[in-house]
Amino acid sequence: MSLPLPARPSRWWLRALAVVGPGVVVMLADTDAGSVITAAQSGAQWGYRLLLPQLLLIPVLFIIQELTVRLGVVTGKGHGDLIKHHFGLRWAWLSVGTLMLACLGALLSEMSGLAGVGLMYGIPSWLTLTVVVVGLSWMVYTGSYLSVERVALLLGAFELVFLVVAWRAHPDVATVRAQLVDMPLGNHDYLFLLSANIGAVIMPWMVFYQQSAVVEKRLGPGDLRAARWDTAIGAVLTQLIMSAVLIVTGATLARSGSNRPLDTVQQIGDAITPFLGVQSGKLLFGMGMGMVGAALVAAIVVTLTAARALGEILGYRHTLEHKPREAPWFYATYTLVLIAAAFITGSGANLVSLGVGVQVMNALLLPIVLGFLYLLARRLPESYRLGKGYGWVACMLIVVTVGLGLYSGIAGMFS
After folding, report:
1. CB of 307 within 8 A of CB of 330?
2. Which comes out higher in pLDDT, residue 165 or 298?
3. pTM above 0.85, yes or no
C-alpha cells in the first residue's frame, strides 16, 4: 500500500501562490502608457534596433527589484522609512522629492493615454478623466490591499493582448535578426530613445511601491524565495510586452514604407490596424485590452506609491488596512494626486512627447534611486546581505545602467 504524499510541498505551493502579487503588479504597471508609447516610438523610428536593449534589461530589472523585495521582507519597513532611519530626514526628503516628480510625470502619462483612447471613440477627455478619478478613488476607498491587488492584476492582464498583436503582425525574421545587433550608438536620436527605454523599464516609483507592498502584505524572510519568483516572472513578462509593442510598430510601419514618428494615440492605433482590420485593431488597442489596461494598473500603483511615501516621511497612517476615517491624510493625498493629474492632463499636452520625456527624466533620476537602494541593501543583517559575487554583479549592473541612462539622456537632449 502506497503512503500518502506529505502535506508540506502542498502548503509551500499554497503559500507561494499567496505571495504572488506585488512583483507581477509592479511589473505590469511598469509597462504603463508612457512605456507603451516609448516602445511604439522606438519601433516606428528604428525598427527592431532597440529590441535587444529590451531583452538585456530583464536581468537588470530583476536584480534591482529583488533588492527591493529583500529590504521589505527583512526589515518590514518601506523604502522612504528606511532612508529616513539610516540617512536622516533630509536625505529621505530628497529621495521622496524625486519620487513625487516621477510619480506626477508618470500619472500625467497615464491620464493622457486614457484620454487619448477615449478620443478614438468620440468620448470627451473631461468625461474619461472624471470616470477614471471617481472609479479609482471608489476602488481604494471601499477596498482592501488584497482587493486592490486583484483588480490591478486583472487590469494588467489585458496588456497580454500586445503579444497577440505582435504575433499577428508577422515580423520578418531575417529583418529582426539583422537589426537586432545593429545599434547606431553614435546617433543622438537613437541615444535619446535608448535613454527613454531605460527610464521606461527602471522607474523610481517601482522601488518604493514593491517594498511597501510586501510590507503591507506582511511577507517575511520565509517568503523571500517565492517573492523572488514573483519578481522574476513579472520582469520577463513586462519586457515581453514592451518587445511586443516595439515589434508591432516596427513590422507594420516597415511594411508600409514609413518610419515617421508617432505623435498621437490615434497614429499608434492606426499603425497596427492595417494588419488586423480597422475595427478589430482599434478594439484590441483601445477598448480596455491594451493601453487602457496598462494605464489603469499604473495609475493605481503610482498614486498609491505617492500617498504611501509621503506617509512614511510625515508619519501619518499610509496603508489600505486602515479605513478613510482612520487614515484621512493617506486617502486625501491619493485623491488629490489623481485630481491634480487629471486637471493638468486636461490642458491638452502631447501624449507622445510627454511619455518619452517622462521616461528620459526617470533615467536621469536613476543615480539617486539606485544609489540609496544599493546602500540600504549593504546594511541588511549579514545572513541577508548581498554575497560577494552577487553584490559585485548588482553593483556593476547598477553602475552601467545609471551611466548609460545619464549619457544617452544628456546626449539626446543636447543633440
Report:
1. yes
2. 298
3. no
Question: Looking at domain 20-413, which CATH architecture does it have?
Answer: Up-down Bundle (1.20)
296-306: string of b/e by CB count within 10 Å (b at 16+)? bbbbbbbbbbb
Whole-number Å distance between alpha carbons of 306 and 104: 9
Could you report the per-residue pLDDT of 361-391, keeping only the tens digit for each?
777 777 888 888 888 988 888 888 877 788 8
Say if CB 71 and CB 215 are below 8 A apart.
no
Domain boundaries, the chain: 20-413
Dihedral sign, Cα of residue 128, residue 30, residue 147, residue 80: negative
Averaged pLDDT, 153-158:
81
